[in-house]
Amino acid sequence: MISFADRLTDAVQRAGSPACVGLDPDPARLPLPLLRDPDSASREALAEAVERFCCGVLDEIAGLVPAVKPQVAWFEALGAPGFATLERVVAYARQKRMLVILDAKRGDIGSTARAYVRATLDDRGPLGADAVTVSPYLGEESLRPFLEATAWGKGLFVLVRTSNPGAGQWQVGGEHPFAGRVAGWISSVNAERVGSSGYGPVGAVVGATLATEAARWRAAMPKAWFLVPGYGAQGASADDCRAHGRDGGGGALIVSARGVLYGAGVERAGAAWRAEVRSRADDFVHDLSRLQQPRGGGR
Amino acid sequence: MISFADRLTDAVQRAGSPACVGLDPDPARLPLPLLRDPDSASREALAEAVERFCCGVLDEIAGLVPAVKPQVAWFEALGAPGFATLERVVAYARQKRMLVILDAKRGDIGSTARAYVRATLDDRGPLGADAVTVSPYLGEESLRPFLEATAWGKGLFVLVRTSNPGAGQWQVGGEHPFAGRVAGWISSVNAERVGSSGYGPVGAVVGATLATEAARWRAAMPKAWFLVPGYGAQGASADDCRAHGRDGGGGALIVSARGVLYGAGVERAGAAWRAEVRSRADDFVHDLSRLQQPRGGGR
Q1: Which residues of chain A are within 8 Å of residue B126 when distances are taken between CB atoms?
Q2: Does the residue A280 lie in any domain?
């Protein structure tokens, strides 16, 4: 069984980029040819349009990026038809050989946590994603069932430090901040599980717009893959993501969702929306290529 | 628009009990007449058995308890058919005039958080529950979209302090613990939104087996309804839940899931499983009736 960290490292090397496209299908922002009137459409019709959008995006980015990050909330908002769409989108991404990191931010304990593992990661369950994002508020006990899934080659990314306004006060306030305890746990469980890539199977979510803090989190979790949201639409640049990686820029998967999926060029591009998504994904990958180079210039 | 806190207070008074039954339908533990062989059943067949179980339970407890708490993980683990079952179970509980508190522990920001509000609380969405449990790890910003839903009579219960092993170290460790910050936020937003019941629409999840801490959390959030898991199967007694309430025992909704749903008496009761669930729910309600009495005896 190849570990998730080794699979991710390999996928990033094959693609030549640490770019991860977030799939946040907001029905109000789909390209016009897919959905003319979101406000009057049924949930079934919305789910169908979302599926055509996501699969179209996957067609365009396959081979270009190593991983995608579907945001579960958008599918759940459409109820059972949305969940069925999520199942098909995840399967399609895997078929196109992209790793699927399900952005679910789940967190519960005991048998409930195991039910979430079944819902998200288990290949005998409905989705069988490669990794899932997990919230640590219920403590170490809530993370253990997901950790067990790493033995079958699955991964998790634990929320450590997000860069949205106000998060810092709660996550890192005080003398022994919660985020520091989470980082300590990640570091210790990875130390026992390092694969041939040099990384362990438990990743950390560390926001992109935290440039001054990022080096500290990297030092605290040297063997963790970082999942880095906040690039592009949320204001961070490739340079802001530099400190999230290890020497040479490895170990940081940078996410862009809205920057690739939306904007007038996509929404109003008519039949050309796919080309517009492709062009935006190309720009994203090109911009990140600077991360592989020394700060301040080319080689 | 009647606030969630006022609706909950009224429902508890009408039922004469603060008992909330958790719906955690584990396919491996359903009564034998509903499902003979969970390991070889399809997800569709499992979802159908779960639906018959949950609706049967709702038939038995209607009128006895004011609220139910479906645990979303168990439904999601069955994929789209499970989600369709959850939609019908929530609708059936509301039809039977029980309040539905969806145990989802969601937490995200911005448009994603709003998508979760749509998925869980919005009456135009698939579930339209009365309230939802929310995880605070992403900070105040992640709670605001749920707070907005209180204007349409919906409620939220924010995870503050859970009693599972190890949670304390992370939630209340250090000088300015995360849980204290969350409690402060709840207290301040409720102060501006107190309804005729004397409670605000933002509740707190505070575990039952924290008797020595409970009085402190109650003092910190005097106008919050508490949702109290951990009774019964997790080891807490009615007396353990006394300090969670206000003077006279109000404002604490006590949850039992496995204690009502499971055990050999239900799983192997054959056609009599419904009577067994009813008897267990009766015992639960009867035991909690001690909360309305002074400690140590009857009136």
Answers
A1: 43, 76-80, 82
A2: yes
Within-domain flag for B295: no
pTM: 0.96
Q: At what angle do helices A140-149 and A178-191 cross, to 10 degrees?
A: 30
Separation in Å, CA A35 to CA A28, B69, B108? 9, 36, 26
pLDDT of residue A293: 58
Q: Which residues of A257-272 are buried (b: 16+ CB within 10 A; e: fewer)?
A: bbbbbbbeebbebeee
Chain B: closest CA distance from residue A189 (Å): 16
A26 contact B CB<8A: yes
Q: Of B215, B212, B232, B221, which Cα lies nearest the Cα of B194? A: B221
Residues 37-76 in A contacting B (C-alpha not used; CB under 8 Å): 43, 71, 73-74, 76
- Residues 248-287 in A contacting B (C-alpha not used; CB under 8 Å): none
Interface contact flag, B174 A171, Cβ < 8 Å:
no
Question: How many domains does chain B divide into?
Answer: 1
pLDDT in tens, A25-55: 999 999 988 998 888 999 999 999 999 999 9
Contacts of B70 in chain A (CB under 8 A): none
In this complex, do B159 and A137 lie within 8 Å of one another by their Cβ atoms? yes
Could you tell me the CATH number of the domain that includes residue B38?
3.20.20.70
**Is residue A276 in a domain?**
yes
Averaged pLDDT for residues B70-92: 98
Is residue A173 within 8 angstroms of chain B, CB to CB?
A: yes
Kindly state whether B178 is in contact with chain A, defined as any CB-CB distance less than 8 angstroms.
Answer: yes
Q: Where are the alpha helices (DSSP H) in chain B?
A: 4-15, 43-61, 72-76, 79-95, 110-120, 140-148, 167-171, 178-191, 211-220, 258-261, 264-267, 273-288
Mean pLDDT computed over every residue of chain B:
93
- The ipTM, to two decimals, is 0.95
Report the sign of the C-alpha dihedral through residues A227, A77, A149, A94, in that order. negative
User: Which tokens sit at A131?
Assistant: 């990794």
The catalytic residue positions of B are 105
What digits encode the pLDDT tens for the residues B250-271?
A: 999 999 999 999 877 777 778 8
* Residues of A with catalytic roles: 105
B232 compared with A244, residue with greater pLDDT = A244
Task: List CB contacts (< 8 A) between B76 and chain A.
Answer: 83, 115-116, 119, 126
Q: What six digits make up the tokens of A278?
A: 């492709």
The number of angstroms, rounded, from the C-alpha of B250 to the middle of its chain's C-alpha atoms is 16
Structure tokens at A21: 């496209």
The domain of A24 spans: 4-292
Q: Return the H-helix or E-strand segment holding B220.
A: helix B211-220
Q: Tell whether A244 is covered by a domain.
A: yes
The interaxial angle of helices B178-191 and B211-220, nearest 10 deg, is 40
pLDDT of B298 reads 36
B231 touches chain A (CB under 8 A): no
